Amino acid sequence: MQFQRATKKTPVTLLAASIGLALQMAALSALAQDASTTNETTAPAQAVANEAVANTAAPQRQDATDLDAVVVTGFRGSLEKALDKKRSEVGVVDAIVAEDIADFPDLNLAESLQRIPGVSIARDAGEGRQISVRGLDSQFTRVRINGMEALTTTGGTDSSGGANRGRGFDFNVFASELFNSITVRKTASADIEEGALGATVDLQTARPFDYDGFTFVTGAQLGYNDLAGDLDPRATMLMSNTWFDNKFGALVSVAYTKRRLVEEGHSTVRWDPGNANGGFSGTPAAESATVFHPRIPRYGVLEHEQERLGVTASLQFDPTDKTSMGLDVMYADLDATRTENFLNGLSFSRAGAAGKPQTVVVDSAIDSRGNLVYGKFNNVDVRSEARYDELETKFTQFNFYADHELTDDFSLNFEAGHAKSEFENPIQTTITIDKLNAQGYVYDYRGDNRLPVITNGFDVNDPSQWSFVNGTTAVPGSEIRLRPQFADNTIDNAQLGFTWQLSDGFSLKAGGQFKEYTFDTREERRVSELIVPALPAGTTLANLTKQIGLEGISGVGDNTWLIPDIDALNRVFNIYSDQGIFATSDRVAAVLGNNRSVEERDQGFFIQGDFNTQLGSLPLSGNVGLRQVETRQSSTGFSTPASGPAQQITVSRSYSDTLPSFNLVADVTPDFLVRLAAAKVMARPGLGNLTPGVTVNVSGGNRVVTGGNPMLDPFRATTVDMSFEWYFAEESLLALGLFYKDIDSFVLTSRETRPYSTSGLPESLLIGTGATASDDFQFNVPINSKGGPLKGLEFTYQQPFVFLPGFWSDFGVQLNYTYVDSKIQYVTSTGAPSLRTDLTGLSKNAYNATLYYEGDKFSARVSAAYRDDYLTTVPGRNGNDVEGTAETLTFDMSASYKINDHFELTLEGLNLTDEFQDQWVDSVGDRASVYHHTGRQYFLGARYKF
To answer: How much helix, strand and coil, in percent to the nearest 5, is found in the chain?
Structure first.
């Protein structure tokens, strides 16, 4: 199915355009007035840059008492404001604040978040996509935008999780310039809605009352990636104004990014034991069950092209001193294309007479860890695979809020909003050409266990060596896969509450919230992906292929090869006609499991007391509260009986949770705080696990059956936090945080590799896939299990070096370290104990370090972010005990130079060491699964501020 893309006007962009026009008209008079008063407004401009909420008149700034005030700006000012926010909160909170108007410290939100203690990130296409907090991955972190829960999903590469059909938030949808602060709430309170075991992350966009009068900022950057070799534009603009004595304000901001990225490297799609899939021909040593070989040894080149547009609009209105209201609107569009091109050694993962049992081991070498690190083979089927994706995520949010003071002691607050994330992958096309029974195929890991030498035994750049023909079960052929897919997430939210100030030291809060969440996903496929048309007379593969190769990797054997030219093949065969053999449907048996939906209706009520008192001479503040929530869940999918047609069914259930919480802060001295917090928390099961059906997926030699369970219980835990914070000097902090989570209930995924015939599923699900019932499949089934304890600590040190002489006093440092430990008992599909090991996504050690310089005109910083290795799949697949991702250490830099109070030049560098993404299987074998890199990224830009 092919879609023609057209530019669409959304309500958000229309509103933003209207606000922008009004602001521009208002700006004309402001510019005229500014021409005569430029020399008198320098100080106010600096104040706006430093403090978004400043609203001080110019005569007051010239008062003698203000002459000694130090205005802290830039990155150092951002750290100071974040520290003030942390200090003023009752719970355990960390924050990141914009350095300036529409100028966030990092170009990617996830990259910024990793500077917070306890936060680590996972990358896709060279940038941060999802986060984990205190060892708990993205599904345990809830994200709110302007106070309302939101969920955005994108489509990544298979190695980075593919299309997001879960609860994890994809931060790469948004440009960071759209936001002026991020707050990470690591402890729970009754007035913050449920749904997080790790943290609640608040993303806040700018509002007009953040600034004093008319404000205009614009900036542009030009990016360069040393692997892709292209120049990429990036631009941002913010315009804001207030009227009627600051009773009404309007703001609009826009951010645009275009980037092209090349990703390349080696992958294997895991490793198999020698006796899997029927074993090799004969009885070589390589056929042992304790000797593992790569399932699909290959090199690949992936090309990403992305356009990212973000628009925010905000209206604020304070009709009286006791009433305030506002509307926040947000629109984001991430439009991308991606190609994935691989040269695969396919026989090693193929069962049947034409697969691995036909492959002859001519020579081999086995290392001490049971890895077949070198092999020379005959009768190897080699496949060149080209995949092309068009992907788009559109996010829209409207959020209205209002506060009214009925009396001096009693106030009401109301909020209602709608958020929707629409992910479309209307074109996902994979076409293969094949070479059967290549002689003298060699792979060799002995020189480098991550970048092996692979030679295919024939000229992979000669089109006459390749074939494009129909195959059979006995003699495999080429494939054309058309797999358009879609995923929508919609959230509607309304809440009403009150605050009653009963005394100077105690206030009572209470309220209710209703939230409706809908998830819907759909996928289509061809009836048979194995049917390919014959080449027309006079047409050869020389007309339908093109060459591709590795750019930054050399000395690895065949580093250029021919791939199918998808555009040329479409011109010849019209593969997007949705007719005949190229018709796609969401009723194809193998894809029924990916056509499902989940609907949740959540009702929550809370009561909370906020107190501020003294115990003797010890000041105490905090809150204690209770939140009661009921979840009504409805899951729809296709059940697949052993005989008879599949049936669409809906399974409904409900459950409730009572969640007490307590937060306490003791001011031991004015500069030394001790925090204590405890709560019961819950997170709802992953969306992909709630389907009542199963999904069968066959892609070449990769065979997977994934089941669901709509009766899964939520994740539940009891948490305790204690922290010690010493604000020993201005803008400085030395802190130690301790945390403990007793995870009472958990959802695990049981994984087994066994023949499809043992599953009891109908063989009709395999029609058109090329797989047989005797083939080994990986079976993934979610089950409830007991959790386990999670404990850890966070250490933070932050200080500007103002005590040093001369220019050294302009330096400063920000350091943090996190340690997390947790052991979970994993089980099999029957509930029998399997492994007891770390939570998936948990890095035991992580640290971030930033050294900065903040002068009057020039500023610079360099940052390092380290994340320990972590597990991704437990138990592992194909006989490997576990699967994981290796440690990473990335370095970034940023520098700027202020020409004057209005103009600034910037330079930024990301991933300066070109860190590779390193995924592995088996804790002992340490076998390469994915080893890709994306190059270094640089940005040169300029900013103008009025």
So the answer is: 15, 55, 30
Residue 761's pLDDT is 76
pLDDT of residue 697: 72
Stated pTM of the model: 0.88
Is 299 in contact with 322 (CB distance < 8 Å)? no
Annotate 739-790 with DSSP letters as a single string: EEEEEEEEEEEEEEEEEGGGS---GGGGTTTS--TTSEEEEEEEEEEEEEEE
pLDDT of residue 690: 87
pLDDT of residue 681: 97
Q: CA-CA distance, 858 to 100, in Å (whole number)? A: 15
Contacts of 670 (CB under 8 A, 6+ apart): none
**Pairwise CA distance, residues 14 & 258, whole Å:** 22
Using CA atoms, how far apart are residues 59 and 892, in angstroms rounded to an integer? 42
Nearest-5° Cα angle at 191, 190 to 196: 70
CB neighbour list of residue 68: distance below 8 Å, 6 or more residues apart: none
Contact in structure between 566 and 650 (CB atoms under 8 Å) = no
Distance of CA 887 to the CA centre of its chain: 18
pLDDT at residue 469, as a whole number: 87
Q: Rounded CA gap, 915 and 23, in Å? A: 44
H or E stretch at 568: helix 566-573
Q: Which of 834, 747, 753 is nearest to 787 (CA)?
A: 747
Q: What are phi and psi of 364, to 5 degrees?
A: -160, 160
The three state secondary structure string of 845-885 is EEEEEEEEEECCCEEEEEEEEEECCEEEECCCCCCCCCEEE
Give start and end residues of each alpha helix (H) in 199-283: none
What does the pLDDT read at residue 639? 77
Q: How far apart are CA 393 and CA 799, in angstroms?
A: 40
Q: Which of 84, 253, 76 is nearest to 176 (CA)?
A: 253
Q: Where are the beta strands (DSSP E) in 351-465?
A: 360-366, 372-378, 380-405, 410-438, 441-444, 453-455
Which residues does residue 736 pair with via DSSP β-bridges, in sequence order? 724, 795
Rounded Cα distance, 639 and 593, in Å: 8
φ, ψ for residue 458 (rounded to 5)?
-155, 170
Token look-up 């509103």 returns 15
Q: Which residues contact 918 (CB under 8 A, 6 or more apart)?
A: 450, 885, 886, 888, 928, 930, 931
Tokens 């029957």 found at:
830
- pLDDT score for 732: 97
| Residue 714 CA, distance from chain mean position | 22
For tokens 């034409």, the residue is 354
Residue with tokens 């790569």: 294
Which strand (E) or helix (H) includes residue 645?
A: none
Q: What is the pLDDT of residues 616-669, one digit of tens each?
A: 999 999 999 999 999 999 999 887 766 667 788 899 999 999 999 999 999 999
Query: In whole angstroms, what is the distance from residue 535 CA to residue 544 CA?
Result: 10
Residues in the chain: 946
Residue 227, amino acid: L
Is the four-CA dihedral 577, 581, 587, 593 of positive or negative sign? negative
Q: Which two tokens stand for residue 96?
A: 């990141």
Secondary structure (DSSP) of 159-182: GGTSB--SS---GGGS-GGGEEEE
User: Which pairing describes strands 199-205 and 141-145: parallel, antiparallel, or unpaired?
Assistant: parallel
Distance between CA atoms of residues 630 and 649, nearest Å: 23
Task: Return phi, psi of residue 828, to 5°.
Answer: -85, 180
Q: How far apart are CA 434 and CA 243, in angstroms?
A: 69
605 CA to centre of own chain:
30
Regions of the chain short of the pLDDT cut 50: 1-15, 18, 21-22, 24-70
Distance CA 161, CA 167 (A): 13
Classify the C-alpha dihedral 773-778-782-783 as positive or negative: positive
Residues 6+ apart with CB under 8 A from 296: 267, 268, 269, 344, 345, 346, 348, 349, 700, 701, 702
What six digits make up the tokens of 30? 């402001």
